[in-house]
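ok here's the first one, seq then struct tokens
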Amino acid sequence: MTTLDEADLGTDVAERTNMCLIVGLFSALTGLFIPALAFGAIGYVETGGREHETGSGLAVTALILGAIELIAVVLTAVVLLVSMR
């Protein structure tokens, strides 16, 4: 079985930013850390396997912001629970 690639057809494929990365970064910027981590990880994996998609830096940004938000929520919950004793 023969597979065809865009390079085999002689056509130029414009590079584009992965949509999962955009959703992940938007989620991270709005404080939704669970979708930020999920879509950031998915987008990072997808950009590594696709030559015509860019945005791995955005994926790392979404993952870092999502992780910071997760840590902040966990620390806030711990502080609130300890202070209620």
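and now the second one, same deal
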Amino acid sequence: MSTLGDQVRDWHHGVLAVAREDLERALCLFSAVREPPAKIYFNMGCVHLMAGDPEAALRAFDQAVTKDTCMAVGFFQRGVANFQLERFQEAVSDFQLALAQLRSNAAIDYTQLGLRFKLQAWEVLYNMASAECQAGLWAKAADTLVEATSKWPEGAQGVLDTALDQVQKRAPLQLRQVPTGEVFQPPRQYLQHLKPMDFLGKAKVVASGIPDNHNTDGWPQQRSQVEQAGHQSPPSVGKRTLSNKGGPMSHALCYNLLASGRPAPGPSEDSSGTGGAAAKDPESLVTVTVQCHFTVPLKAPRDTDLSSLRALLAQALLHQAHVGQLSYQAPGEKFWVPIPTEESLQSVWRNAATGPRGLQLQCRGAWGRPVLYQVVARHDYSAQRPEDLDFHRGDTVDVLCEVDESWLEGHRDGCIGIFPKCFVVPAGTYVEALPGPGPKPGDQH
């Protein structure tokens, strides 16, 4: 079953097909819209008129005004179709219905509704007079034009004077209609999520390092994925990189691991390069476990060798370590509290536990973009589009941007995308509960 996004996409592509005069393709796309609204039927009618098939156009405009009985421009175009079929009395009736829907207004501007056309009362009366001429009602046509002239239409006085002169000479009038190629376009707000977005560019590396407290005997396999320019692949999730024996993972250690492909020196060696009094007094050292999770961009020449690629990745990760969002996890707590300032870090030191686990920190970031806050998924969300971010109930997501009132842009496990706000709650307010029926993802697009 097609989603609302699929239908809007077909509508948009149909409009583009009309613009390039691919009428068969346009009709196919408009017809693919499930339960078409009045605007789609109107578009189909206009395309049939362009194709020279007024009978099919009449059927489409019938559907349009049935769906929207106040659609003045629909009655106007149905009158055009009846006129072309030489059903002049029906045409006069349609133009009268169009005039009635104007509700004594001089015009209706459809631009804000997606149609670049302004239906004016004098044009409706002009077409009514044209149909009356074809029906042989010349006196009635003259009266209709006089009525149109009495409305003092802007910029049309000369046109109406000429038309009245023609009618008095019993010369037929040229019919007016919506300009060829003008159709209703989908609302702009419907189009904003249609185009897939590659947030990381053409060439990028997606990698992360996340410590695993359950593994203290060795180094797990580190994985990274490189996407070269001109090639695309699904978003990847970088796996875990640990500090040896659960200790800190310094910049130098990260660089060593990436540059050489081997573990850095063990805890007995000074791999941090910090030195100073703290290094001389082991009793003053505190074990700081830092979970690192980054998404980084990397531009590399094609066919770059492995060692050069690792060096570039190490440089990118060092940058990410500086711009990532540091957060603190208190013992026994489940959620992370951001550390945005020096004062907040000193407060963390004062409150840090002296137990064997030491200080628990987290450093997260996506391409240097700041993390506004974190949310937790209340329900599973399956991606409906390439630009969506999927997750499972209980997952923590970094919020990078508030797209609008209903959507957020987030980062999780090396992937960036948008997701509905109603599927998540702020991290500090999440409470475990029995699974219940969640929102329907299809209703969000």
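notes on #2: Residues 306-323 form the longest helix (18 residues). The chain has two domains: 4-191, 204-444.
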